[in-house]
Specification:
Length: about 350
Amino acid sequence: MSVTIDITGLPQERIVFCPSPLAELGAALHALAEPTHHPRLHAWTTTTSAALKPELADRLHEADFMWNSTRSDMLLPARPRETLAEELDDLDRMDDEKFVGSALEISCNSKYTQGAPSPLVDERMRRRALDLAAARGPRQTAFVERMLADPPGTRAWIRRLLEDCEEAFFADTWRRVGIQLAADARHKTELMRRKGLADAVSAASSAMALEEDERGSRIVVDKLVQGYTSAEGTGVTFLPTAFGWPHLFALHAPGWQPVVQYPVPAGDLGGAAATELVKLRLEAIAHPMRMRLCRSLARGANTTSELADAYNISAPEVSRHLAVMKKAGLLTTQRRGRYVLHQLDVSVVARLGSDFLESVLR
C-alpha cells in the first residue's frame, strides 16, 4: 500500500523543499500530546509539558484532536512562509467550509480519499463528526458543537491558542530547529538541481521513491494506507521536520495541493525483547488487517465501530482482531461512558522493533 502523487508534466520549479513554522508547531504539539510516539524527544516533551501554564495545557487538551491521532491538513501549508503569523494569516483567508472540514478530520476518515463534504453543509458528515467526538468525551463534543455553531469564533480561538503556544515555548524552539530545517531544505533543493528529483526524494526518506515509466512520473510514499492525488496545476511541497520521526505525512485529500512532511535524519530506537511473549506478539501483528489496524490504534484511542468504519469491515471482525492483539499485550483499553476505546501500547511495540513502529506511525 502507498500514497501516490502523480507529477506527470510538472515543472521542477513547482516542486519545493521548504520549512514551515506552522507545520513544525503542529508536529511539536503532536509530540506533546503523544510523547510515547517520540521517545527521542523525551527530554523536550517532559521539560516543555512541565513548564506549560495549566490554563494553556487545558486549552491544548481541548483542541488536540487536530494533531493527536492524525494531523489536520490545514497544519501542513502548501506555501510555507517565514513566520508563524504569516501562515496563520493564510489560514484566516481559508473559507469556513474548508477550515472546519479539515479541523474535524478527527480520526483516519474512510472518506478522506474520496473528498467528503464539509460538516457545515452536509448533515450526514455533521452527525459523523459529532459521533466521533462523542467517543472522546463530553469536552470534545462541546468543542465540535461550538465549531459547527460558530466557525468564526472558534477559528479565532484556535489562532489565539497557536499564538500563545508560540509565546510560551515555540518561538524559542523555532529559533533553534528552524536553522536546521532550512539547511536540510536547501540541501534537498540543491540535490534535486544537481542529481534530479529521484535522489532528492529518496534522500528525504527511504520510504519515498520516484517512479517513471510510459504512463508518467509519480512520487510514491510507502504507507499503510492507499491513496492517490495529482499535482497537476498546483505542485508538491516537502516540509522537513525535526519533531516528526517516525511519522511521514502525505497530504493527498481532493482539493488540496499535495504536501509531504518528512523527518530529518535521526538515530534508531533501541529495544529489549522477551522470548515466548515476543513470538506471540509477532504472530499477532503478522496478519495484514491487524497491521493496518495498528496504524489507527497507534495514533490514538478508537472504538470498535470507528475501526470498522475506517477499514470497511464488520464490527465483529474488528473485535476478533482486537482480542488477538489484547491477548498478546499490545493494547490498552479504557471505558468512557458507553464507549470502550482501544489503543496500541506504543512502548511495547517499540521494544518489538523500530522498523515496525515506524511503518505504522509513518
